Amino acid sequence: MSAALPHVIMTGEHMDFWQDRRVFVTGATGLVGSWLVRDLVDAGATVSILVRDWDPQSELIRSGTIQSTSVVSGALEDLATLERAIAEHEPDAVFHLGAQTIVGTALRSPLATFEANVRGTWNLLEACRRHPGIVNRIVVASSDKAYGESEVLPYTEAMPPLGRHPYDVSKSCADLIAQTYYRTYGTPVVVTRCGNIYGGGDLNFSRIVPGTIRSLIRGERPIVRSNGLFTRDYVYVRDVVDAYLRVAQQADMPGVTGEAFNFGPAMPMTVLELVNRISGLLGRTDLLPVVLDQASSEIPDQYLDSSKALRVLGWTPRHGLDAGLRETIAWYRDFIRAR
After folding, report:
1. What is the pLDDT of residues 116-132, one digit of tens each?
2. Is there a smaller number of Cβ atoms within 10 Å at the N or the C end of the chain?
């Protein structure tokens, strides 16, 4: 039995926009993709998705939502697969969430990360470029990592992508490629740059939020790979889905197409502060974290200025940190109990 995911609350206007609209989603079995696809399906959209590996633990599969989609089997690295998907499924909207998203994996396997994140992005955009009469809005998920390390914070959209380490560089490149397709070919792309996304359905337990919650539920001390002092934004997945939907709905408006938008809560905190917050919500402040101080090739401090998203899109997070963490903790309790 799948743990229940609360849905993004859509207004009637939002529901009307997606009703019967054809949508293609890469990365649909991931954390954000699972939530996004469910909300699109609930809104009446006709959704096709790209799936490389069948993971029965993915929330998209466990919840049964995948049964309401058309599945295109293949990888981002295969241009022919992507072009077939666009030509045959004729999506008006494309959400490009697919990527290799783990920093540690990128360090171990930089070439595979570049293939998925860089080649995968230009393949998708090229497939869309070849069918301009079909695709009218494309959301490319970049990251705050694309900015690279900066002495000036918070990041604003006026700052250039300057990643230095493998994962960061892969997102910088994808970001620049998306802007190239807009500036050169008029491909209707919008780039999103989010802080660290958390929420139920994230099964990458090397990440701090799911890893900490699982450890504490099991009565174990949580593991912190870094020195615990890295500063980050943490944005709840439901707020990210709301952001992506808003971007796509307004993608044909002046000041939106071809632009990049930051999405974060404007409340940066250290890793240890976050772990302590989770420990308090779970009532396990007795389980002190184990600080390994082993993280390498990671940016110490990152957080975003999201004022442009508020000004242009009307977006601001609807969930405070405690509210988002409570919903996330409830999801993992159900998930662990069901296993």
Report:
1. 999 999 999 999 999 98
2. C
User: Which of the following is catalytic: 167, 182, 198, 244?
Assistant: 167
> Is residue 74 situated within a structural domain?
yes
Dihedral sign of CA atoms 316, 318, 322, 325 in order: negative
| Total tally of structural domains belonging to the chain | 1
Does the model's pTM come out above 0.85? yes
Chain segment 59-88, per-residue pLDDT in tens = 999 999 999 999 999 999 999 999 999 999
Among this protein's residues, is 167 annotated catalytic?
Answer: yes
Residue 5 within a domain: no
